[in-house]
Amino acid sequence: MADAEGVEAIDPTSTIKDFDILQQVGSGTFCVVNLCRKKDSGRVFVVKQLSKKKIVYLKQVVHVTQEVEILRQVDNPFIVRLFHTMQDETNLYMVLEFACGGELFTHMRDQGNLNEGDTRFFIGEIALLLQYLHDLSIAYRDLKPENILIDRQGHVKLTDFGFAKILGPEGTTTMCGTPEYLAPEIIRGEVYDRNVDWWALGILMYEMLAGFPPFYDEENDNPVAIYTKILNGQVKFPSGMELYAKDLIKRFLMRDVSQRLGNLEGGAEDVKRHRFFRGTDWVKLAAKEVAPPIIPRVNGPTDSSYFEIEELEPENSQVEKTTVAEGLFTVFN
Fold it and tell me: Which residues contact 10 (CB under 8 A, 6 or more apart)?
């Protein structure tokens, strides 16, 4: 049975034993990310392996289950696709689309900063996917270059929905995200909603053009110092930054949420009408018909040269089995 893009779907009874691990391409507090090949089809995927024991110990059960539920719900060309979930006695597994172009962060770091045209392209695609998520009442809450991947054609693929949440009209007060990208209302402990993503988009746009975020602690990367600058500091722009680019960033970085672009009467359409996007064909951009400025140079579907490859963790035959409440991770079944 083929999916919407004409690729063969994964057998829902598949287990981790049906995949060959090629190499480790990432890791986190309670997860390991491996590039894997399905033994029967030869197709390549990213398999995110999450330790049940660590998830329970770190009280991340809700975040993990929310991530799966949201990824199953979304269907957008700018979001990494979730193909399959499975589990065994010790781990949970998420089988995801492999975006071989690596993190946008890597390309930004290698170039120092992006020019206005390249920034317009990436911010435009991200604005479209935020509009899509927000229409579903989903707040992403962790927008940053490390969570934006580039696919083989050069288009955006948003990944890592661990902090994403479906918000009701009451909003939320959860403190989560990356310090340099946190909106003031999150830091102040106030009720907030999906509009924190527009603030983060402003931070991202500034970092693309300048090569560094507008609020950071130069001395020791102290989160408290970063929070203080976000709450009190004024945005200082490098000389030479284009007028409309600065204006768009300022409108995203409004501390008064009621005045923030994306939260006005026109919503995301106000963002798309801003003069910075003059000449942008939003229909073609949404259809991925606009030529990307960065085309990954890869040799094939398993080329992971844009990722910092990590050594595979040695298998331990004496791995301690995790005792958790039965049915705690049924969402992975």
Answer: 38, 83, 84, 95
On the question of pLDDT at 25 being above 60, the answer is yes
CA neighbours within 13 Å on the CB side: how many for 73? 17
**What integer pLDDT is reported at residue 329 of this predicted model?**
81
Q: Which amino acid is at 76?
A: N
Structure token digits, residue 283 = 């229909």
Contact 51, 104 (CB under 8 A): no
CB 203 within 8 A of CB 180: yes
Q: What is the pLDDT of residues 230-276, one digit of tens each?
A: 999 789 999 999 999 999 999 999 999 999 999 999 999 999 999 99
Closest CA to 74 of 153, 194, 166, 192: 166
CB 85 within 8 A of CB 92: yes
Please state the pTM of the whole predicted model: 0.91
- Kindly name the residue from 75, 110, 135, 142 that is annotated as catalytic: 142
Rounded Cα gap, residues 223 and 182, in angstroms: 11
142 catalytic per annotation: yes
- Cα separations (Å) of 267 from 76, 135, 259? 19, 10, 11
Q: What is the CA radius of gyration of the chain?
A: 20
CB atoms within 10 A of CB 102: 18
CA distance 32 to 314: 12
Instruction: Kindly write down the DSSP assignment for every residue of 211-278, as one continuous string.
Output: SS-SS--TTT--HHHHHHHHHHPPP-PPTT--HHHHHHHHHHT-SSGGGSTTSSTTTHHHHHTSGGGT
Question: Domains of the chain, with CATH numbers?
Answer: 16-100+300-332 (3.30.200.20), 108-286 (1.10.510.10)
% of the chain with per-residue pLDDT over 90: 77
Give pLDDT tens digits for 185-198: 999 999 999 999 99
Backbone conformation region of residue 116, classed left if phi is above 0, alpha if psi is from -120 to 50, else beta: alpha
